[in-house]
Amino acid sequence: MAFLRKNRVGLALGGGGARGLAHIGVIRALERENVPVDILVGTSIGALVGGAYASGMSPDEMENRVDEYLKSPIFETSAIKAFDQAHNQENLDLTTRIQSYLKNRFFLIQAMFRPGILSNEDFQATIDFFVPDIRIEETRLPFRAVATDLVSGELIVFSRGSLRQAVMASCAVPGAVMPLREGERLLSDGGIICLIPSSVARMEGADVVIAVAVDRDVVTDEELRTVVGIYHRVSEIMSSRLRKVELDNADVVILPEVGDIHWTSFSRAGNLIREGEGAVHDKIHEIRKATRGLKGWFKIKGVLKSKPLRRAVN
């Protein structure tokens, strides 16, 4: 049986859409290197991958599940695939390009009349595909999901309740997925104010924090010729500022080379997972230095559920 150490290691998985599939490779490499993790905190796609893993799914199982998802009717008919195709049109024939264009226009028009392109019901099917129907308290590795309350502007940290609902709230990307109503709260993507949840891992009792950032670099050569392009650029700049604050709060920062991959490009899953593994390899000496002196190293998959950590919100 695993035992608690005086010094705890927290793994903070950041948001970034499909780029967050690199988290699977990061976790696989950490397992291979026997790096200890006592609490896992996720924002957006980090919450999805982290929630699946904390509930007992291995990295290999997660990768297989991603492959199954990409072949499933849930993905084939989704707005996510339509946007993915739009950003990879050089690989499509003329007919498919036209279909992709029309789908995108349809979804964008929908967004003008409701708070998200995807309804909660539609997106819930994606969450359910990866995350089991259990409570956060039942995960075998302590887990937290981060969301934003659009009403109060506050950071919400889920430490109990439905795992699926917590992940759903954390993944509700503004504009893409409708915010999740919970009492007086209107919950949306945790990445709005906490893109990489290093501070939450620290708040929850981690003495050593390993942060994984999978957002795009703020540098761009893109011409800002449309309102949408300018809006996205402004969002990236604001996120980069918040990103720096969170990464400054981490002991080790892992940066998979995700390049300028679009957040909907789930078809790049294999490459992204490999990048995650490679990024850990590049930082393994730094990781060992940060965790030097910690007793009771063990593989993450061998951890049993431990006592609640210091502070919980929600």
Summarize the structure in words.
The protein has 314 residues and is α/β, with parallel strands linked by helices. The chain is built from eleven helices and ten strands. The strands form two sheets. Strands 1, 2, 4, 5, 7, 8, 9 and 10 form an eight-stranded mixed β-sheet that branches. A hairpin with a 2-residue loop joins strand 7 and strand 8 (185-189). The longest helix has 22 residues, at 227-248. The chain is globular. The two termini are 30 Å apart. The model is unreliable at 89-103 and 296-313 (pLDDT under 50).
Helical residues, percent: 40-55%
pLDDT under 50 segments (min length 5)?
Answer: 89-103, 296-313
Integer average pLDDT = 80
Total strands: the figure is 10
Helix and strand run: EHEHHHHHEHEEHEEEHEHEH
CA distance, first residue to last residue: 30 Å
In terms of structural class, how would the helical and strand content be classed?
alpha/beta
User: How many helical elements?
Assistant: 11
Largest pleated sheet: 8 strands, mixed
Overall, the morphology is globular
